[in-house]
Structures are given as structure tokens and as C-alpha cells.
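Section 3.1: Structural characterization of target chains.
Under the original work plan, the team committed to producing a structural model for every single-chain target entering the pipeline before any wet-lab resources were allocated. The record below documents one such target. The sequence was received from the expression subgroup and is listed exactly as submitted; it comprises 456 residues.
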Amino acid sequence: MASNDIDTIVAISTPRGTGGISIVRLSGYDLEQFCEHLFSSKLVPKQALFKRFLDSKKMVIDEGIAIYFPSPESFTGECVLELHCHGGHVITDMIVTRCLELGARMAQPGEFTERAFLNGKLDLAQAEGISDLINASSKSAARSASLSMQGEFSFQVREIVEDIIEMRKFVEACIDFPAEDIDFLDNRDLKKRLVLCIKKLNLVIKRAHQGRILQEGINVALTGKPNAGKSTLFNLLTGYDSAIVTSTPGTTRDVLREKVLINDVPIFLSDSAGLRESDEEIEKEGIRRAEEEIKAADVVLYIVDCANGSLNQELAHLLPGVLKLCSDGSLFAVVFNKIDMLDFKKSDVSHCLYPFHLISAKEGLGINELKNFITDLVGLDEIVEGVFSARKRHLIALGEALKFIEIGKKQLNNTGSGELLAEDLKSAQNNLSSIVGSYSPDDLLGEIFSSFCIGK
């Protein structure tokens, strides 16, 4: 970026509203005039100084702290000025207006972080880690986002990219100098490198998958026949009586949704109408909405009433129909409820073909174990050390890179073709490089940074 051509941007970096302190941030390369007109004085770099903020008539808007960070020793890599004033939207708006009068323009969402990326202060995965940290909804999510922000995710990706580059150098050198007569098929070192690369990628994918779950949460749909105990379980998991519970079948008509933390994992829980044949228009609409919830869920928990006398029939006939509604990649499990009403044991349902768990929602039996059961289903039974936050695009890129390396390994074993392997390695490298931003189309950058909050 050419420093002289970059305009100065300004934004409020703290949440709008009333508070003790608000921060107005500027970034650009010509901030001397702002200091001169706002304070009638210059600032000492990287020192917090008490100043009075002045309007165009030299009237005091507010008094507070000003901190100046010269280029390149700032978050954006440009000159940055932070004005710490009293919290209140009127005061901050007046200071921002004064900055606009002096030639700044309002920053776009994520523009400060985008400039930091473009100026080489952080890579794309680190930038996304900052956004994830701001939006973290649990301690685990915050820790994973912090690791991404610090560069742990980027380091592991770059390590694999370096391995791929080394393999590409070897393969392409052999292609360029065929007189050396190297047999790719018999090159054990190359095969070992490919196997090790695949192993590393699988570990990064596992960590990224767990990080995405911690950051974005999972959609869990409770479903089953009427009076199976879905609403009672929903209330237990959410911690309050948000769903009406009666002995009358079909009480739940609309979809109820609540966000809860289960084992520090964000869970978007839904309770909906019981599944059955009905001629009643309102209930039919409730059942249709229940089916839509099943289609959209990451995890579908089918609640079975163990005391209804038709357990085997339900497992044999109703469950396959529910499974057809589940989307590809979603997880399905059965929760056997009301075990307090019978002398019920796991062996009684050992013929169940799906993962299952036993509870009594009414008595609270097995509920804590059910929470572990849910997180186990999505692969969080054993969180590997160093989980970092990740997004859908990261998992797609990692998956594509793994696919190309596995194809390249297969090509090497079947044909011994260096040309095919070289192309597969190049494609894998490009996919991994897109994660950190060293190989990214401009429209991707626009999409990523537009999701940031203004002022960051």
C-alpha cells in the first residue's frame, strides 16, 4: 500500500451507549493536523497524555486521554491515534464529527483490521481470530480464538505448506532433469513425506473442526412422538420453564429455540411439535415446522417414551422416516426417556441400531450424562491440545488440500507420474495458502472483513 495515498479513517471502537469510557480511533499517515487542531499540540509517541479535545471554535468537547502510535508500530501498521473520552454517544459523535471536518472519513466495517492485514501486521487467519475473539460466547471459544489471533493456526498451516513446497521442489526438479532417471514409485523418502503431510493435515482438520464447533455452536433438535418428554427435557437443559408441559398430546405447536452452554459449548436447542398423523390444521403446521427443524439440525435427538408399550414398533417404523429428514452430515441419536417408570436397563435396548442414552427427564436422571453424550457425538469428547478457532471456509480449504495430497499419493503409487503429483501438490498448496491470505481473491477479503464490527 502506498502510504501517501491512504486516506485517514475514523470510527468509534467501543460499543455505543453510556459508559465510563469510549474510544475514538483514527488510522492514516498524516495525523499531525488532527493533533494540532484537536489539542493544539503534538503528541509523544506511545505515551498516554491528558488532553482537552477541541471543536472548530476551540471550545472544549471533552477531556480525556490521547495515545499516538507512529507507523509502523501500531495495530494497522499506519499512524494510529486513539482518543479516550467519557462514554456517551453525544460526546463521541461530536469528536468523530470534528475528525470528519479535519479530513477523515468514516471507516468501513473491519477496515482497521483489513489495513493491518494488507500492511503485513497479521495474516488472514489471525484477523478472523480477532473477530472470533470479540464474538466468543464461551470461555473455550475465547481461548480457541485467542490461539488463532496469536498465530497458532497460521503456524500449523504454514508448516504444512513448507513441507509441500519442499516436495514440489524435488518433484519438479526431477521432471526438469529427466536424465537423472529417478523412479518416483521407488522413492521412499517422497512417500514418507506424503504420509507425514497427510497425518499433519488430519490433526489440523480435527483441531479446526473442534474450533469451529466451539466458536459457532451446534444446532440440536429435540424430536419424537407427542408426550415423549421433549418439552420437559428442553426445560431441564435450558434451566427454566420456557416450554409448556402437560399430559395432553400436541401441546407444543410452534418451534421453541434457546441458546445454552453445555460443557462450555454453545448449543442452539429447539423443541417442536410431536411427530404423528393429524387432521388438525394448527398441529399439522407445527409438525411441518418440526420437520424443517430436523432438516436444519446438526444433531437430532429422537426422544422415545419407554413406558408407552410400543417401543420396538417405534424403533422399527418411525425412526427410519425421521432419518430420511436428516440432512447429510447431521448426527442422529435416540434418547430413551421415562426410565423411572420401569425397571429399565441398557440391555433392554441393546438392539437399537443408533447411538442412544437413557434418562428420566421428570426425575432428572441421566441429564448430566446426556450433556456429555451430546458433546461426544460432535467429537468434543476429547478436545485435543491447542484447539484454535476456525470457520467453514477453513475446513473446506483443509479438506480440499487433504484430497489433493491423497490423490497425489495415489497417483504416485499407481502411475509413478511426477507431472500429476506436481499438479496435485500445487493445488493443495493454493488451498492452504488461502487460509492465511497469501493466495486469496479480493472478493473473499471483502466478504471476510465486511463481517467485522465498525471500529475494528
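The mean pLDDT is 84.
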